[in-house]
Amino acid sequence: MTADKIRELVAQMTLEEKAAMCSGADFWHTEAVERLGIPASMVSDGPHGLRKQDQEADHLGVNDSIKAVCFPAGCGTAASFNRDLLRMMGETLGNECQAEGVSVILGPAVNIKRSPLCGRNFEYYSEDPLVASEIAGALIQGVQSKNVGTSIKHFLANNQETRRLSSDSRVDERTLHEIYLAAFEGAVKKAKPWTVMCSYNKINGTYAAQNHQYLTETLREQWGFDGYVMSDWGAVNNRVEDLKAGLDLEMPSSLGANDKLIVGAVLSGELDESVVNAAVEHILNIVFRYEENRDKNAVFDKDKDHETARKVAEETIVLLKNEDVLPLSEKQKVAFIGQYAKVPRYQGGGSSHINSHKITSALEAASGMDNVIYAQGFDDAQDKTDEKLLAEAVEAARSAQVAVVFAGLPDKYESEGFDRKHMAMPDYQNELIEKIAAVQPNTVVVLHNGSPVEMPWADRVKGIVEAYLGGQAVGGAICDILFGRVNPSAKLPETFPIKLEDNPSYLSYIGEGDMVEYREGIFVGYRYYDKKKMDVLFPFGHGLSYTTFEYSNLTVDKEKLKDTDTLRVTVDVTNTGTMAGKEVVQLYVADKKSTVIRPVKELRDFAKVELKPGGTKTVTFTLDKRAFAYYSVKIHDWHVETGEFDILIGKSSRDIVLTKTVTVESTVKLPFVYTTDTTMGDVRKDPRAWKIVQESLAMGMIGGQDDSQSEAASEAISDEMADAGIEYSPLRGPVSFGGHVTMADIQAIVDKLNALDD
Length: 758
Ligand code: BGC
Known about the structure:
single chain; 6-stranded mixed beta sheet; 5-stranded parallel beta sheet; binds beta-D-glucopyranose
């Protein structure tokens, strides 16, 4: 329906009908207005499968939803670094929504993994905003290609579950832009989600739902968002203020209470009716976008989608360590050990929980293989070592040629609604791995978890496979990887620190009461570990393959460019091994010298290429200003400092294989206002300014060598200290030390400096 037609429709609605349209009709539907032909529209969770609840609705996953297909959770899909794969998964979800009459699927969830402890990390993508927004963008494009909407969530700075309804994320402006907004920005601009879900928390003292700055100025005015903003379920706390801020749809229904407040506010003049009209237009625009593009032929073929889920899972499994133990051969006697081999942990708890129509375990996937034996090893329900299960497992491991331990985190460790308290796996699982490794030199650990864990046994096993939470088809995918039918190609979208205390948010995570200060600033994840030159267990971007890749011929199309230009970068990747495989090529940019504090390097693009043995492909990246920029709080905009930048091509953040240096020239001069406090060093940066100061002040006086200095004093003052004395002396310095200079003289100089042309 055209914008004009929607406006005409809104003009026919009563104030009461419009107010009602601004909140849900029930838990999952928008209001219908039958007399005007406006249908109710259903939304459903999300993000990695369809959780459509027909009756007895609730948002914590307690009541059953329809049988559906559980895809790998966000933690894993991000590890694929494969936009095409995410598009394909999105198309599948979009088709399921068409078949089930769902207009908007509530995802993707892109919040940054500030700490490994966040209870919802399994749903989220990455510690890096580019990965989060690119992966989200691809999923959004896929879903929306089927004329079904998405709801990118939870906007904004919602990075913990503790006190999630009242916590106040205190984040500085630069960090918000470089890290937390950036996770949404690329996806909103490029993929244009139909809706955005605003989060529960406050941002710098204002609830996300009431935040005009982010919901309207940033989202609509700067990023061009044209859909509707809906609240997270229960995130509305002041309906009228929220509406003014740009929150269009309250979910779920307020059962009429807030409709009355809206009507009252309009009648009393507190709220302009045009604000209500705009919100209703935003909502109806999407309601009709879906309604007019219904696919009556769509079928939810669960078995077919299960196979798609398996394909996705194959690319979400990261091979972390492999000392010549994988892939396994079907001729080897292999012991599958651990409860998760039979009952995989494949999804997290809460609103994303899918009622899976079937689940394939690794054991089931290996059921036709005589060489595989099984021992349960542990029982999560007991929460402690079961000596009998342990002994049986050790025996099985001893009798086999290889032991594969399926371990990770139990269900109760990872869920929406609360955060983990520590990063350890249960003791009984760690003990099992240690005991197995002690009797079986060829031990491989397969991990099922949605967020990093500590691995005290890492040095004592030959292989580690991070399966994340791989969805209902995970078992088949794991067997394909273990036995080499599929070559692993995922990489970590987050750092695995050695221990929790290494994480940059450790000192301030979950905050004090509701106050959560993001004290690590922009130094999230590898941005911090790199800067600190810290050892990590597995770095961001790490992931092994059964083949080898070599990189060569790094080229740039210019060595000098302006910040308004684009830079074309190409690199050749060759499969030098014996197995076909896919490689994730990572491009980082490092500002070699900067006057602002910056990370050592930042990921600015990535690509995934598939190569047969011996095959070579050229990967092309195009970088623009943002690749070189930081967010300047002086101009409230992105800014590039003139200077040299390294273009780094890596297999991981800690395995950079090729480098080229380019010079970027800024076309923007940051405003600079001289004051009597400006240092001589800063004045010296502009030779014209420095000349004025020198001439005006008979410069010998400033920091010049004083012949009458005693010998003891000259020993105390090194040349370096004398230089620093000038560098850091404020312009007003000579008033104290120069003898005849007055503050009025200095002010006159300052005025002259400020009068210089740019
Ligand atoms: C969650 C959202 C979810 C909504 C509806 C909320 O509790 O935070 O992610 O989409 O419930 O289930």
